[in-house]
Amino acid sequence: MSDHAVPEYWLREGVERLLVDEAAIQRRVRELGAQLAREINDGKDIVLIPVLTGAIIFAADLMRAIPSRVRIGMVSVSSYGASTTSQGAIRAGELPKGITGKHVVIVDEILDSGATVRLLRREIGALAPASLRVCVLLRKQRAQALSTECEMVGFDIPDEFVVGYGLDFNDEFRNMPFVGVLGQAAIRARSG
Ligand code: IMP
Ligand code: MG
User: Residues with beta carbon inside 6 Å of ligand 1?
Assistant: First the structure.
């Protein structure tokens, strides 16, 4: 998606390869915002529901690309149960108030296993919104992600571990303004 080199600082932090550059992200976010404004035109409010924490940067840019009345309400999704792996059971925190009758857009930065999006679609759908969409910036090319219902996708990317634009490794790299692949050495240095 880009031949540009990884900027010096991020290269030193272990980012190996640039996958989606800043300009491409900003262009695509503007398109997604314009699409939402076009599709939702009955005068009812749009409510963006970003999934904490990774989706905050995408949601902040996306809401400014929608020339309509937009509200925002965050939701958190956390793991629970005995499992310590990321594949364990998950549950949603408190849902924003006032969803009923509104046009709701669940905003996440990446669709991976799809568990987060499926859980939120079920729980938010039960609150009778006027319409419900899922909008993700990135979707990994893996069967579980591709088979998860999702109305809006920014970019399809390879099934690799990525960081930047909200995506983290151990809470780092969220502030990187582009999406890139973290090298194995950097992953090892930050594990354990
Ligand atoms: P899910 O597997 O689709 O439920 O995605 C769960 C969450 O895992 C996403 O919202 C991200 O926060 C995180 N995640 C998935 N893939 C990556 C990645 O490649 N880098 C960083 N975080 C990721
Ligand atoms: Mg997330």
Answer: 51, 54, 108, 110-116, 161-163, 167-168
pTM greater than the 0.85 cutoff:
yes
112 catalytic residue (yes or no): yes
Distance CA 168, CA 174 (A): 5
User: CB under 8 Å to 188, separation ≥6 — which residues?
Assistant: none
**CA-wise closest residue to 154 among 105, 106, 110:** 110
Averaged pLDDT, 2-22: 90
User: Cα dihedral sign for 140, 124, 166, 87?
Assistant: negative
CA of 78 to the centre of ligand 2 (A): 9
State both tokens at 26: 């900003």
Residue-wise pLDDT for 135-183, tens only, equals 999 999 999 999 999 999 999 999 999 999 999 999 999 999 999 999 9
In CATH, which of 3.40.50.2020, 1.10.3720.10, 3.20.20.70, 3.30.70.141 is domain 22-156?
3.40.50.2020
From the candidates 108, 112, 159, 168, which is the catalytic residue? 112
All residues at 6 or more sequence positions from 132 whose CB lies less than 8 Å from its CB, including other chains: 104, 105, 106, 121, 124, 125
**3-state SS assignment for residue 171:** coil
